[in-house]
Amino acid sequence: PNFSHITFKAAPGADIYINDEKVGTGTWNGDLKAGVYSVECRKPKHKSVIEMIKIEENNDRVIELRSPVPQTGVLAVTSDPLGANIKVDGKDYGVTPKNIVDLLIGSHKVEISKKNYKSVVTTVEIREDETTECHTKLNKIANVTINITWVFLLGLFISKSLINTIIIIIQ
Hints:
The protein has no helices and 18 strands. The chain has strands spanning 3-9, 15-18, 21-25, 27-33, 35-42, 46-47, 49-55, 61-64, 69-70, 72-80, 85-88, 91-95, 98-104, 106-113, 120-126, 131-137, 150-158, 161-170. It is elongated, with a radius of gyration of 34 Å.
């Protein structure tokens, strides 16, 4: 036969295209006739990688494809006061001030929190090769103290006549 059994292996979650036709995700196995093929790996928020691969007849093999390149930007996070905790999409990134590098492009949920301050959640848009600034002013939580005083008036009665009264105060 004039074909070979080929296995293409790509990065997890990467779609594999042979001559512009999607054939699988992550791994593809199949028979290809001898010739030159355009093999592309695509992944959301990544730059696709296209390789021209020559297939020879009767040359079964596994081919590791190059991974799509992440499209990233930087998130510069500051807060007032400094030293607040940073979470991006639920993942801890330390405390402010901080530059978070290699964050994938697109929308991200940012949560800034600090003890005795009200947490702030916001959404930021990361653009490729750009720095997005996120400054958050935290508001102090008011300390509320509640004092309760109980006053009891007790009366001592004998034959329906008031003999004595007692006042009890509990704070």
